[in-house]
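Q: Fold this one first, please.
A: Sequence and structure below.
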Amino acid sequence: MAKLSLNSALKGISGRIDNWVYRKYGDRTVLGRRPEFSGPPSAGQQAVRDRFRAAAAYAKTVLADPVQRLDYEALARARSVPLFALIMGDYLNPPEVTAIDLADYHGQAGDVIRMEAQDDVAVQAVSLEIRDATDAILEQGPAVLSGGRWSYAATAVVPAGATVTIQATATDRPGHTGARIVAWTNA
């Protein structure tokens, strides 16, 4: 690969000129051929383009809101990443519930279920749902953040021998969700 030092007039160049694309990577400028597309995009390609279009629209909305912008700016500075890229990444990467801890849950009202959730920027909320074998909701509600973990105090009693599904759902700033479901039997 050839290396070239640009003169001061071209040092900040980026974008497309003729059939060439100039990209900035840190303090380097990279030159490449303009991509050629043959035919209309496939359904998968169009879906990706639509997601990126929605992410860009979300980023523009956040940048126009001074309160949200401040939060993202602080995080972008701390991570040394471009603000727009950080916001788009937050939109494109949904949160994830990484663990549901049932060690203190015994099917009684007041028992605590603990959850861990993560996101590339911030988890805004975690909610919990407990369903019986017929998929009817026994109880549901928001979890509380305490010491880096989310906790939910049960309000319903699960009869001995009954199997329930417990679903924890995390929500991030753009409103996307990620969930984890576990089955539990009251032994």
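Q: Good. Now the second chain.
A: Here it is, same layout.
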Amino acid sequence: MAEFTTGEAVALELPIARIPTRATAFLVDVVVQIVLACVLFVLAAGVLLRSRADLAWLDVAVLVLIVGVLVGYPVTCETIWRGRTLGKLMLGLRVVRADGGPIDFRHALTRGLAGAIVDFWMLGAFGAVAVLTSMCSPNARRIGDVLAGTVVVHAQRPLPAPLLAVAPPWLAGWAGPLPLAMLPEELALAVRQYLSRFRTLTPVAQHELGVALVTAVCARLQVPVPAGYPPLQILGAVIAERQRRALPPPMFPVFRPGPLPVGP
């Protein structure tokens, strides 16, 4: 078991997936990838042969299929199924963020590229690198997990849905065009914890910590601090816009009651 601190500052215990179960899930995914690659190769070869294309195009198609299946399969599955592939689904595993929340496309892409290049195939000696790094990590993280900020756990119970923030309307236009991809996960988590704990802080701590976070956030986003607005509203607008882009409303409904405090 490992304890995670969610974006709402809630302690969550999840069992870490170790090498035996992860290896079994990986082998299932490899079989699926081989079948998928064979099917796509037959289709591509049929199209090229019927069109009487040069055989060099067949070599190109093979290379594209190999790279596409090795990277595209895990990235697509983990993005659509929120941290699961067919192998992980059969073994009851799930990839989560370091704070216990669901992953998105960025995390899946980082894990997929690292898996294809470093952990398993090109430089990974057929998984030897992934096994060694997992054995040396207390949470059994391979290099792809370290780079993406993720952990593989046993998903015996559903993950708690994220608590969504509501932006002040007068700051929605300011937050809309912000380059939020430049905001690191650690800083975003600190802002969410500040918002969720705001009412428990003293007035002095509310102001000083809020000003420090606003300064850090605006510095990372390379935008000036909006004048005339309290830190609570600025940070709430940033997190609300970040959630709007990353968490589709149909999949993550807003909790009522209890939204993060962002008003005056």
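Q: Anything worth noting on the second one?
A: Residues 5-11, 250-264 have pLDDT under 50 and may be disordered.
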